[in-house]
Amino acid sequence: MSDLHFADDKTASRFTLHRGDDLVSVLDYRDDGRTIALTRAFTIPTFRGHGYAAIVTERAVDAIDRAGDREVIPVCWYVGEWFDAHPERAGILHQRPAS
Protein backbone atom coordinates (compact mmCIF):
# COMPACT_ATOMS: atom_id res chain seq x y z
CA MET A 1 0.00 0.00 0.00
CA SER A 2 2.87 2.32 -0.71
CA ASP A 3 0.76 4.23 -3.23
CA LEU A 4 -1.44 5.61 -0.43
CA HIS A 5 -1.23 9.30 0.44
CA PHE A 6 -2.63 10.63 3.73
CA ALA A 7 -3.26 14.35 4.28
CA ASP A 8 -4.93 16.73 6.71
CA ASP A 9 -7.15 19.05 4.67
CA LYS A 10 -7.57 21.72 7.35
CA THR A 11 -9.77 23.96 5.18
CA ALA A 12 -12.31 21.13 4.81
CA SER A 13 -11.75 19.79 8.37
CA ARG A 14 -11.05 16.30 7.12
CA PHE A 15 -8.27 13.80 6.86
CA THR A 16 -8.04 12.24 3.42
CA LEU A 17 -6.60 9.05 2.01
CA HIS A 18 -5.81 8.78 -1.68
CA ARG A 19 -4.68 5.74 -3.64
CA GLY A 20 -2.83 7.22 -6.57
CA ASP A 21 -5.13 9.96 -7.89
CA ASP A 22 -8.28 8.44 -6.37
CA LEU A 23 -9.79 9.66 -3.12
CA VAL A 24 -10.64 6.44 -1.28
CA SER A 25 -11.53 7.45 2.28
CA VAL A 26 -12.09 10.51 4.47
CA LEU A 27 -12.36 11.20 8.18
CA ASP A 28 -14.20 14.42 9.03
CA TYR A 29 -13.44 16.27 12.24
CA ARG A 30 -14.21 19.29 14.40
CA ASP A 31 -11.25 20.94 16.13
CA ASP A 32 -12.00 23.31 19.02
CA GLY A 33 -8.34 23.96 19.92
CA ARG A 34 -8.32 21.45 22.81
CA THR A 35 -10.02 18.41 21.33
CA ILE A 36 -10.62 16.92 17.91
CA ALA A 37 -14.00 15.27 17.49
CA LEU A 38 -13.71 12.61 14.79
CA THR A 39 -17.21 12.85 13.40
CA ARG A 40 -17.48 10.67 10.29
CA ALA A 41 -15.33 8.03 8.62
CA PHE A 42 -16.38 7.34 5.05
CA THR A 43 -14.97 5.18 2.28
CA ILE A 44 -16.01 5.79 -1.31
CA PRO A 45 -18.33 2.84 -2.12
CA THR A 46 -16.24 1.47 -4.99
CA PHE A 47 -13.22 1.23 -2.65
CA ARG A 48 -14.92 -0.42 0.34
CA GLY A 49 -13.65 -3.71 1.71
CA HIS A 50 -9.94 -2.87 1.55
CA GLY A 51 -9.47 -1.48 5.07
CA TYR A 52 -9.13 2.16 3.99
CA ALA A 53 -11.30 3.51 6.83
CA ALA A 54 -9.00 1.77 9.32
CA ILE A 55 -5.94 3.22 7.60
CA VAL A 56 -7.24 6.80 7.52
CA THR A 57 -8.31 6.49 11.17
CA GLU A 58 -4.96 5.09 12.29
CA ARG A 59 -3.00 7.73 10.41
CA ALA A 60 -5.22 10.50 11.78
CA VAL A 61 -4.75 9.26 15.34
CA ASP A 62 -0.99 9.02 14.72
CA ALA A 63 -0.92 12.63 13.43
CA ILE A 64 -2.96 13.94 16.36
CA ASP A 65 -0.80 12.02 18.82
CA ARG A 66 2.43 13.32 17.25
CA ALA A 67 1.19 16.92 17.49
CA GLY A 68 0.58 16.26 21.19
CA ASP A 69 -1.78 19.18 21.79
CA ARG A 70 -5.25 17.65 21.32
CA GLU A 71 -7.33 14.83 22.70
CA VAL A 72 -9.76 12.82 20.58
CA ILE A 73 -13.51 12.53 20.97
CA PRO A 74 -14.71 9.56 18.88
CA VAL A 75 -18.15 10.77 17.73
CA CYS A 76 -18.30 8.42 14.72
CA TRP A 77 -19.32 4.85 15.59
CA TYR A 78 -16.55 3.48 13.38
CA VAL A 79 -13.88 5.50 15.18
CA GLY A 80 -15.28 4.34 18.54
CA GLU A 81 -15.04 0.72 17.42
CA TRP A 82 -11.51 1.36 16.11
CA PHE A 83 -10.47 2.57 19.59
CA ASP A 84 -12.18 -0.47 21.16
CA ALA A 85 -10.03 -2.67 18.90
CA HIS A 86 -6.88 -0.65 19.77
CA PRO A 87 -7.02 -0.10 23.54
CA GLU A 88 -3.31 0.75 23.52
CA ARG A 89 -4.28 4.05 21.83
CA ALA A 90 -6.82 5.05 24.53
CA GLY A 91 -4.37 7.50 26.11
CA ILE A 92 -5.27 10.09 23.48
CA LEU A 93 -9.00 9.93 24.23
CA HIS A 94 -10.66 12.89 25.93
CA GLN A 95 -11.89 12.00 29.39
CA ARG A 96 -14.99 13.90 30.43
CA PRO A 97 -14.91 15.22 33.99
CA ALA A 98 -17.00 13.22 36.46
CA SER A 99 -20.18 14.98 37.45
Structural features, described:
- Residues 7-94 form the N-acetyltransferase domain.
- It comes from Microbacterium proteolyticum.
- It holds the Pfam family Acetyltransf_CG.
- This is N-acetyltransferase domain-containing protein.
- There is one protein chain.
- This protein is of the alpha+beta class and 99 residues long.
- It has a single domain (4-92), classed as Gcn5-related N-acetyltransferase (GNAT) (Aminopeptidase), CATH 3.40.630.
- It has 2 helices and 5 strands.
- It has a 5-stranded mixed β-sheet with strand order 1-2-3-4-5.
- A hairpin with a 4-residue loop joins strand 1 (4-9) and strand 2.
- The longest helix is centred in the middle third of the chain and has 16 residues, at 52-67.
- It is globular.
**Widest sheet: strand ordering:** 1-2-3-4-5
- Which overall shape is indicated by the principal axes computed on the Cα atoms? globular
CATH class: Alpha Beta
The total count of helices amounts to 2
Low-confidence stretches: none
Average pLDDT level: 95
- What count of structural domains? 1
**Order of secondary-structure elements:** EEEEHEH
In CATH terms, the superfamily is Gcn5-related N-acetyltransferase (GNAT)
Fill in the CATH topology: Aminopeptidase
Content-based structural category: alpha+beta
Beta-strand percentage? 35-45%
